[in-house]
Specification:
The protein folds into two domains: about 140 residues; about 130 residues. It is flat, with a radius of gyration of 20 Å. The chain has a two-stranded antiparallel ribbon. The chain has ten helices and two strands; from the N terminus they run H-H-H-H-H-H-H-H-H-H-E-E. With about 270 residues, the protein is mainly α. Helix 6 runs antiparallel to helix 7 and helix 9 packs antiparallel against helix 10.
Length: about 270
C-alpha cells in the first residue's frame, strides 16, 4: 500500500512540472507545440485520475483538468486545421501567427490553468489525508476492476454491428491511456498497445477530416478543399476499420462476459 500511496503523488508531481513548463512555453510564444504538449499532459493527468474516481482528494483535481481540456480544445482544433491548410498550399486561410500567439498567451494566463495548478499544489495534503483515513484500502483491486470494465466496454463496442466510430475512438483512448498510466494493473502487452495506438491515430485522422468537411459546408473559402478532404476521409475510414478489425482478437468477451485481452503472451 505504501508504494502505491507514494507512487501516485510522484506521478502527479512529474505532470505538474510539465504543466508549469508548458505554461512558460505558451507565455513566451516561441514554441508552436506548447499547446499540444499541454493537452498531452492533461490527458495523462486525467487518465491517472479516472480509475481513482470516488475519492474526495481526486474529484476537484479531475474537474479542473476537464475544464482546462474543454478550454483548450477549440484552439488546438484550429491549429490542426491551419497546419492542414498550409499543407494544401492555402496559407492565407490558415490561422496567422498573431492569432496563434494571442491564443497561447490567453491559455497561459487563463483562470482555468491557474486554478488547476493551485489545486495540484494543494493536492498532496489531501491525498495523505485520504490515506490516513483508510480511503485508499483496496485501491489496487478497484483500479483493476475499473480497467477491466473499460476493456469490456471496448470489446462490446467493437462487435456492435452499428458501431459508432466516435464512441470507439473515445473507448480506445481510455483503454490505451489507462494502460499507460497503470501498466502493472492493465496487463496489456506492447503489441496490443501498438494496435490501440494505430486505431486511435486512424480514427483521429478520420475524425479530423469529418470536422473539416463540416466546416467546408458552411465556409465558401474552404470549398476548394472539399474534394481532397472527401477522398482523404474515405481512405481514413477504410484504414480505421482495418485497425478496428485488428483489435477484435485482442479484446474477446469470454463466457462470463469478462475480457481476454492480448496480454503477456505476446
Amino acid at each position: 500500500m505504501k508504494g502505491f500511496v507514494d507512487r501516485i503523488p510522484a506521478r502527479l508531481l512529474s505532470l505538474q512540472v510539465r504543466l508549469y513548463a508548458c505554461q512558460a512555453r505558451l507565455a513566451s510564444a516561441t514554441d508552436p507545440e506548447a499547446l499540444h504538449d499541454l493537452r498531452i499532459a492533461l490527458r495523462q493527468l486525467r487518465s491517472l485520475l479516472r480509475p481513482l474516481r470516488g475519492l474526495a482528494a481526486v474529484e476537484a483535481l479531475e474537474q479542473r483538468a476537464a475544464v482546462l481540456g474543454r478550454r483548450t480544445g477549440p484552439l488546438r482544433d484550429r491549429e490542426v486545421l491551419a497546419a492542414e491548410l498550409r499543407r494544401l498550399g492555402m496559407p492565407r486561410l490558415a490561422q496567422g501567427e498573431v492569432q496563434r500567439i494571442a491564443g497561447h498567451a490567453a491559455v497561459a494566463a487563463s483562470a482555468e490553468l491557474a486554478e488547476l495548478l493551485r489545486t495540484l499544489d494543494a493536492w498532496p495534503a489531501s491525498w495523505r489525508q485520504a490515506a490516513a483515513q483508510g480511503q485508499l484500502r483496496g485501491m489496487d483491486k478497484r483500479i483493476r476492476r475499473r480497467l477491466r470494465r473499460q476493456r469490456r466496454q471496448l470489446a462490446q463496442a467493437l462487435r456492435d454491428p452499428a458501431h459508432d466510430r466516435h464512441r470507439l475512438r473515445l473507448l480506445i483512448k481510455r483503454v490505451r491511456y489507462a494502460a499507460e498510466a497503470y501498466p502493472r494493473h492493465s496487463g496489456l502487452s506492447e503489441a496490443v498497445l501498438g494496435r490501440l495506438k494505430r486505431a486511435q491515430a486512424e480514427l483521429g485522422d478520420w475524425h479530423d477530416h469529418l470536422q473539416w468537411l463540416a466546416q467546408g459546408d458552411t465556409s465558401e473559402a474552404l470549398q476548394p478543399c472539399r474534394p481532397v478532404w472527401q477522398q482523404a476521409q474515405a481512405a481514413a475510414e477504410r484504414r480505421a476499420d482495418e485497425a478496428l478489425l485488428a483489435l477484435h482478437g485482442d479484446f474477446l468477451p469470454d463466457k462470463q462476459g469478462d475480457i481476454f485481452a492480448g496480454t503477456m503472451a505476446e
